[in-house]
Specification:
heterodimer, A: about 130 residues, alpha+beta, Thiol Ester Dehydrase, Chain A, two-stranded antiparallel sheet, 3 helices, about 25% helix, about 45% strand, globular, B: about 160 residues, 6-stranded antiparallel beta sheet, two-stranded antiparallel ribbon
């Protein structure tokens, strides 16, 4: 079991979303009908994607040694409708300061070839 | 003339609102799978805004012993802002998709407490509607837990 899977197991909401560790430190949101936001077009709920990218950032910081990582603010742009399929979150640390970390998180589908959303935010970290 | 009671849904219809409230209630609470699963409630309507509610659930927390997860607040804010835009556009044939959502988390949510989320559409441009939303505990509406700005693409 990876560090990220162990951290997911501790958090009820991450289990509710069905998160799991992906390859290379990524996090995966399973494409289940429960995450649909628009019944007229079977696409994932934008808010669920935003929640997923925020969770992926927290998991990245915690797997990297932060005891706590508290989200200050996070902005998500939805680039295209995301069909009900597994979505991968790939985290980039833009700057890690002593107290605050700035992260960018990409949401990818179709074997990471299609960017569906991007989030950018700041986290208060306690190492 | 003010709001009028909509018999079918029990909601107060804001003056000037011409939307099918049965359909709006369904979109808010049942036909949206993510919100049906969480148990989202539609509490009240305004001409350009809406308030939704979510009861406490101990499976929706992101810190042991904590309150409702930040992600849950984001899911609620996205939905509430999108519904506020729909009310403001006031046309059943034109839905909208959220294009961007920025959430700032002001204070931690309290364990054991549900939330109310209110959003208001502040501006409608030709292709995009702009909404803002806030999250608070029902018994302390003056203490903001999170706030959001949201852009909603208008269907042509």
């Amino acid at each position: 079991m990876s560090v990220i899977d162990e951290l997911i197991a501790e958090v009820p909401y991450y289990r509710y979303l069905g998160l799991r560790a992906g390859e290379g430190g990524t996090v995966v949101l399973p494409g289940t009908p429960r995450h649909i936001g628009d019944h007229t077009r079977a696409v994932l709920h934008g808010g669920v994607l935003a929640a997923f990218l925020e969770a992926a950032a927290v998991l990245h910081l915690r797997s990297d040694g932060a005891v706590t990582a508290t989200t200050i603010g996070c902005a998500t742009d939805f680039l295209r409708a995301a069909p009900v399929a597994d979505t991968i979150a790939s985290v980039t640390v833009v700057r890690r300061g002593r107290r605050v970390a700035h992260l960018r998180v990409d949401a990818l589908q179709e074997n990471a070839s299609r960017l569906v959303a991007v989030a950018y935010g700041s986290w208060l970290v306690d190492a | 003339m003010g709001p009028t009671l909509d018999e079918a849904t029990g909601l107060w219809r804001p003056e000037g609102c011409v939307l099918d409230l049965t359909q709006l209630l369904a979109v808010a609470t049942t036909t949206n799978a993510a919100h049906y699963d969480m148990g989202t409630q539609l509490l009240s309507l305004e001409r350009h805004g809406v308030t939704l509610g979510l009861a406490w659930r101990d499976d929706l927390v992101d810190t042991p012993g904590g309150g409702l997860a930040k992600g849950v607040l984001a899911v609620m804010l996205d939905h509430t802002c999108s519904l506020a835009a729909a009310l403001s556009v006031n046309d059943d044939t034109k839905g909208g998709a959220t294009m961007g959502l920025r959430v700032d988390y002001l204070a931690p949510t309290e364990p054991g407490q549900g939330i109310h989320v209110r959003a208001e559409c502040v501006h409608r441009a030709e292709h995009v509607a702009f909404a803002k939303g806030t999250v608070f505990h029902p018994d302390r509406p003056e203490v903001l837990l999170a706030m959001a700005t949201c852009t909603v693409a208008k269907q042509p």
